[in-house]
Amino acid sequence: MPKIELSSLKPKELIAGYLARFIHTPNMTFSFVDVTAGKSLPEHAHTNEQVSIMLEGEFELTLSGEPIRFGPGEVIVIPSNAKHSGLAITDCKILDVFCPVREDYRVMSE
Q1: E strand residue ranges, 1-110
Q2: 3-state secondary structure of 50
Q3: What's the start-to-end Cα distance of the chain, in Å?
Q4: What is the C-alpha separation between 94 and 101, in angstroms, rounded?
Q5: Rounded to an integer, what distance in angstroms lies between the CA atom of residue 67 and that of residue 2?
Q6: Is the pLDDT of residue 44 over 70?
Q7: Residue 66's pLDDT band (boundaries 50, 70, 90)?
Q8: CA–CA distance, 101 with 85 (Å, rounded to integer)
Q9: Would you state the pLDDT for residue 1?
Q10: How far apart are CA 96 and CA 79, in angstroms?
Q11: Phi, psi at residue 6, to the nearest 5°?
């Protein structure tokens, strides 16, 4: 698996307005997410550490009750078990990296 063409990966709908393409390594999950403007992400938490990298667009992430707007080239680190939610201000392309692997996402990829 040295080279992967993202366009060859079938997108999976995480929730309405959130389509993701997944790449899994033995220790990490990479989730390339296309988000529709105006779509919200319900509050949730997971044991995985998460690094969110904004590739295109603007998103407001609420992390542990604090709203944070981020745009292209900005990164947010979400600690393990931290409650977070969000709202797409514009259409977005976000790369979420999880460690360890998101097993629920791996199952979606099969």
Answers
A1: 12-15, 18-24, 29-35, 40-44, 49-56, 59-63, 66-70, 75-78, 84-88, 92-99
A2: strand
A3: 16
A4: 18
A5: 37
A6: yes
A7: very high
A8: 20
A9: 62
A10: 13
A11: -55, -40
What is the token pair recorded at 107?
Answer: 């199952």
Per-residue model confidence (pLDDT) at position 106: 94
pLDDT band at 110 (very low <50, low <70, confident <90, very high): confident
Rounded alpha-carbon distances, angstroms, from residue 98 to 23, 26, 43, 89, 90: 11, 12, 17, 23, 23
- 91, 35 Cβ separation under 8 angstroms: yes
pTM (2 d.p.): 0.95
Edge to edge, what strands does the sheet with 18-24 contain?
12-15, 18-24, 29-35, 92-99, 49-56, 75-78
Give residue 92's pLDDT: 98
